[in-house]
Structure formats: structure tokens, C-alpha cells
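Hey, can you fold this one?
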Amino acid sequence: MKKKTIVLILLTTMFFSCKKDWLDYSPIDMYSAKIDYNDSDAPKHLSVAAVSIQPSKTDKQETRDTIKSMVEKIKSEHNDIQVIVFGELILEWYYDSESKDAYQHQMAEPIPGASTDFIKNLAVVNNVNIVFGLTEIDTITQNTYNTQVLIRNNGDIVKYRKRNLNQTDIDNKMTAGNELVVTEIEGIRAAMFICSDMQSDKITKEIADAKVDVILHSLTSSTDLNTDISYVGTQMNTWIVFANRYGTEGDYSYTGFTHIINPVGTISERAVGENVYVYRRLGIFNK
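Sure. Predicted structure:
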């Protein structure tokens, strides 16, 4: 293997949804040499998929039906699938520049609500854990949150509220979450994670200290990752299941690039486009 050469690039332009300046270090550093990773003899495994779809701007049922069709497609092609991850705020546009927070309030719903009820049934029928993003509204305070939801194959709900808000979240008048959420799926420790959370040294340190096996990463990004280099830092010896969105939303266009990144930072699986997904049976080593 070639000697790794540090490129020391801070990814300030990597994510449309992650516009804030990086904090006091880069949670993802980039290295010029791709690093091999062999998980063939791992003692534990988790079969995962990351999906890119194009959401409707206002018709959430249309988007829910797209999610349903993708879940059924993945299940038919990979009957062993255990976790399917969709993107950040994937039930609607990420940002409407004309109405901003008014649009987000229009699309917001409580948890549980219509979308979690729909996807709960989908998860149970297909015996799969489903992760997706939506705008959550607290019916008491009327605060809105950029929330990632995990619905287990038994119907139980786990939710995580984005903590490191970027300027777009602020324009949307989202309220920040206040705690790390680490859960277990089939005995595998998983951290829930949303886009610009990766720009927080506090959050990434908490995940590192939690010694998770996989990061379930819903995001919105219009800037692709370079497949010829390796990414380390946020991974922290951890798999990342990296689900994005596709399509044109106002002034922004998304290619749908979606990845599974292995614990040494190399992109193991990659897809680009609408209604595409990547699948991998992750090998998990004891930490």
C-alpha cells in the first residue's frame, strides 16, 4: 500500500446543507491513497442499504409511496436486508427559498403521525428496520425539528433530532436537538446522525466515545465525494451508511450520490441517480 499523504482539506464546500465553517478540526480528513478493507472473517454482520429518492414538494403520500416501492424492491432483491436508510427531510424538499419556515411548518407532522404510521406498517410487513428524515412538530410547543426516525421491524420508534444546525436549518427556524442517540439493531450498536452534525467536534467525539459499529447518516448534499481517495475521522473505525436525495428543488440540484463507507474510510459501495440504492452486508468486528 502506498504511504498515506495527508491532503489536509477542510470540506467547507462538500455539502449544500452543511454551509457553516468547520470547527477546530476536520471531522473528515482526506488521504490520497485508497486503503483496503477486508471484513470477510468478521464475527457479526448487518445487511444494510442506503437509498436516494426524489421527494414531492407537497404530496407526502406520493413520497411515502416511493419509499414503499424502494423498500419492496430492496427486500425482493436482498431478502436478508436488515436496515434501509433514506435521506434527511426526505418526505419533502429540504429548503424552499420562497417560504422557508412557513413551508416546513406546512410539511411538519408529529411523531407518531401519518408518515410514521405508514412506514411502521411497511417495516413490520417487510421485517426490516427503516430510517428516514422528516420535519417533526412538537404539538405542545409548536417547535419544529430536523428529525431522523428509526422504525424497527417490530414497529417500535426511535428518533433523533439534529443538533448542529446549519444556516439553512436556522432559516427554516428549526430547533436543535440536545442528545446523542445510540441504539442497537440485532446486537449491533448504531448511532443516528444528520448531515452537518459531522461538523461538530463535540458530537463526533461523543460517537467515538460510544464505540458504535455503524453510523446511520441521513443527509442532503449536492456535492459528490471523490471515490479515488479515502475519508477518515468521522468514521472512527466505523461503517457509515450514507443516504442522500435526488432531483431539482428550486435553485438546488442533487445527483443522488449515495455511499457505504467502510471503517478505514474507503467507499465500499456507491450509486448515483434517482430511485437508486447501495447494499452491503457489513462485517462487524468486536471493539
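Helices lie at 60-77, 101-107, 114-126, 167-171, 201-210. Let me know if you want another pass with a different chain boundary.
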